[in-house]
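User: Let's play a game. I give you a shape written as C-alpha cells, and you guess the letters that built it. Ready? Here's round one.
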C-alpha cells in the first residue's frame, strides 16, 4: 500500500520495500524516467541563523511517476545507486540545479548558492571532477556558488580515492559540506583530513534539542569542533521557532527545515524568497 507522506510525496511501507518484483519494475521504469522527463528537482532554502535571510538552496530530487505519484528520493536513490543509474541521474541533477541557479542569478539573486547531494558511486570515478568543471562552465557559474553535500559514509567507502576527489573539487573552488554529521562512523582524524567547508548537523540531534540536554550538548560540541576547524555550521530539520532560536544561540551559522522553508519547486522557491 502507498500513502501520502508528510513530505507531500508517496512513500512505501515496509512490505513494499521487501518486494523484489516491485524493485525490479521500479528499476526498469527508472531507466526510462530520465528520457521521459519524469525527474524533477525541489529546492529547500538555507537561511542565515541570525535571521539574515536566504543564502541559497539545496536541490532535492523527486520522481514524478506516471502511476504512483511524486516519489521521494528514499524510494529510488538506493535502486539507482545499486544499478549504477545514479551516475546519469547525478549528472542530470547537477546540470539541472546549475541551470536553475543561473536563472536565479540572472533574476537578481546573484549571491545565492546551490547545494547538490552526491552519492557514493559518484565518488568512484574521477570523471566527477571533469563533470563538475564542465557543468559550472556551461552555466557560467563561479565554483564557490556550488556546494557538494557528502555524507560521512559516502566519503568513507574508499577514503583515499574520496580525499583525492574532494581535494580536486576544493582546489577548483567548489565547497564541500559533510551532510548528516554525527550519524556516521568517521574518526576525528579523518574529519581533520577532509577538505570540507561546512558541517551539517543531522536532524536527529535537532529534533529533541529543547528537552534533551544530551542532544544540546552534542550540538554545542559539534559547533565548537566545527569552529576550531574553521567550518561553517549548518543545522537541518528545524521544525519549530524554539529550535531555530536555540540553534542560533548555540552558534550555528545556517539553518534549514520545515519551520523556515520546505522543499518546493523552483517557481514557488522564488515566490517565497521575494
Ligand atoms: P538529506 O540530504 O539529508 O536531505 C534532507 C532531507 O530532509 C530531505 O528529504 C528534506 O525534504 C528533509 N527535510 C528538510 N527539512 C526537514 C524538517 O524540518 N523535518 C524533517 N523531518 N525533514 C526535513 P528528501 O528530499 O526526502 O531527501 C532524502 C535524502 O535523499 C536526502 O537526505 C539525500 O540524502 C537524498 N537525496 C535527495 N536528493 C538527492 C540527489 O539529487 N542525489 C543524491 N545522491 N541523493 C539525494
Ligand atoms: Ca543533503
Ligand atoms: Ca542531511
Ligand atoms: Ca538525512
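Assistant: Ready! My guess for every position:
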Amino acid at each position: 500500500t502507498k500513502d501520502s507522506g508528510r513530505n507531500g510525496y508517496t512513500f512505501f511501507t515496509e512490505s513494499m520495500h521487501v518486494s523484489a518484483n516491485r524493485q525490479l519494475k521500479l528499476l526498469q521504469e527508472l531507466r526510462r524516467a530520465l528520457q521521459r522527463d519524469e525527474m524533477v528537482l525541489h529546492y529547500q532554502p538555507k537561511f542565515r541563523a541570525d535571521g539574515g535571510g536566504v543564502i541559497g538552496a539545496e536541490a532535492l530530487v523527486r520522481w514524478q511517476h506516471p502511476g504512483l505519484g511524486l516519489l521521494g528520493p528514499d524510494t529510488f536513490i538506493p535502486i539507482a545507486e545499486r544499478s549504477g543509474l545514479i551516475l546519469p541521474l547525478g549528472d542530470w541533477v547537477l546540470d539541472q540545479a546549475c541551470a536553475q541557479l543561473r536563472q536565479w542569478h540572472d533574476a537578481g539573486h546573484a549571491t545565492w548558492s546551490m547545494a547538490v547531494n552526491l552519492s557514493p558511486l559518484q565518488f568512484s570515478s574521477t570523471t566527477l571532477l571533469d563533470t563538475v568543471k564542465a557543468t559550472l562552465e556551461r552555466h557560467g557559474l563561479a565554483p564557490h556558488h556550488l556546494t557538494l553535500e557528502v555524507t560521512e559514509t559516502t566519503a568513507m567507502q574508499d577514503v583515499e580515492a574520496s580525499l583525492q576527489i574532494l581535494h580536486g573539487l576544493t582546489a577548483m573552488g567548489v565547497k564541500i559540506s559533510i551532510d548528516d554529521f554525527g550519524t556516521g562512523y568517521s574518526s576525528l582524524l579523518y574529519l581533520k583530513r577532509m577538505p570540507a567547508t561546512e558541517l551539517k548537523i543531522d536532524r536527529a540531534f535537532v529534533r529533541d534539542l529543547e528537552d534533551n540536554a544530551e542532544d544540546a550538548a552534542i550540538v554545542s560540541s559539534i559547533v565548537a569542533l566545527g569552529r576550531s576547524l574553521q567550518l561553517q555550521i549548518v543545522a537541518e530539520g528545524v521544525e519549530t521557532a524554539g529550535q531555530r532560536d536555540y540553534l542560533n544561540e548555540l552558534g550555528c551559522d545556517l539553518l534549514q527545515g520545515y519551520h523556515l522553508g520546505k522543499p518546493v519547486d523552483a517557481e514557488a522557491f522564488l515566490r517565497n524568497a521575494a
